[in-house]
Prior knowledge:
Blueprint: H1 2-10, H2 13-19, H3 24-39, H4 45-55, H5 60-71, H6 76-94
Amino acid sequence: MRKIIMALLILPAPLVAEVLPQDASYAARQTACMAWVVGGAYPSGLEEVACTAEFGLPSPFLFKCALAQHAGYASGGQREACALFLARAADATRQGYVRR
């Protein structure tokens, strides 16, 4: 048992997260965060910041724009906001790190 504890102390944090079982509240929080992203809205800005930081989830605006692209935009302003959002995402993608 002592060897296991020592091994866990030596492992980097991402590996420890994979080794240790996740508790039910963590899984429930992750499910809630993912539902808010796909649903297109968080209950508050604090929840959005916390979920994004904890789970690395994308902005729910991405899903709103994808839906509006197929179902139609509510206004010209929404269409322009989506175009700007996606243009910035494309620029960030082009500047991303390539491992090889």
